[in-house]
Amino acid sequence: MKGMAIVPFTLNEYAYCWNNPLVLVDLDGLSPNIPEGLTVFIDPGHGGSDPGATITEKTNFWTGKITRPALNENDVNLEVSLMVRDILEDNGITVYMSRTTDQYVTLKERVRLALEVNPDLFISIHHNSSNTFAHGTKVYYPKVVRHGDSAVISSQLAETVNSFVSKNTGLKNKKIHEGDYYVLNQFLDPTEFDYTSHQLAKYRQKNIFAILTETGYIGGDARFLGNSENLQIIAESIASGILTFFSEQCCEL
Ligand SMILES: [Zn+2]
User: Three-state SS for 45?
Assistant: First the structure.
């Protein structure tokens, strides 16, 4: 995508910041600064027989109007992930994915695929629980671990992505958190795979980053997440966060 990313903004109850400009990066200005050869691995959470969080449709008893759409987390994750992929690829970044259709992939297979690619960034895209009283966006980063000589610190990236999502969508900012997730842990420190630490250090020879996004609740934010234009805003925000991080804050890969 060339030029400033313009996203149609839907005025709804969540969009209280509708009259503010979106916090999206100037992609034309940014692209030259993105390190050459950057690779990103996108992992759309769940899929196939594993729907993730789900919520049923709700209608108004008197009017019959739909007040809440039925949603499956796996569908929302995939739609956002494909949008993020397209934006990153348009900016010259090589993108790999653990799935591009509605299929079941084990957690171990997701990590195995990522390790094979040896990306600079692993991002697992999820949405939060079916709790209808909960709202907001969170991004998780792994504990700081070391493999070989390479320190892995992802909290700054998590902060950039989460603040972009919150500012652009109006979703409540539920901050960044350290997350104890299999895919993050095993990507950074693959104890369940047959790598020696020497092999792994040689294999990577660079800093790598990993985050897991939960950009809204399938329950409490269902009306927002049930709208593709809003999912595009989430995707633009995630991609802008990644591009900003790698172009401005992260100089050594
Ligand atoms: Zn999930």
Answer: coil
Q: Which residues is 121 bridged to in the sheet?
A: 40, 209
Question: Which domains are delineated in the chain?
Answer: 27-249 (3.40.630.40)
Q: Encode pLDDT of 117-165 as tens digits.
A: 999 999 999 999 999 999 999 999 987 665 543 445 788 899 999 999 9
pTM score, whole prediction:
0.86
- Nearest alpha-carbon partner for 99 in 118, 83, 126, 81: 81
Beta-strand pair 173-178/137-141: parallel
Partners of 26 in the beta sheet?
A: 4
166 CA to centre of ligand 1 in angstroms = 19
Strand pairing class (39-44; 94-97): parallel
- 188 CA to centre of ligand 1 in angstroms: 19
Vertex 166 angle, CA 234 and 241, to 5°: 60
187: nearest Cα among 247, 133, 123, 91: 123
User: If you measure from the C-alpha of residue 87 to the centroid of ligand 1, how many angstroms do you get, rounded to a whole number?
Assistant: 22
Sorted by sequence, the CB contacts under 8 Å of residue 93 that are 6+ apart come out as 34, 38, 39, 40
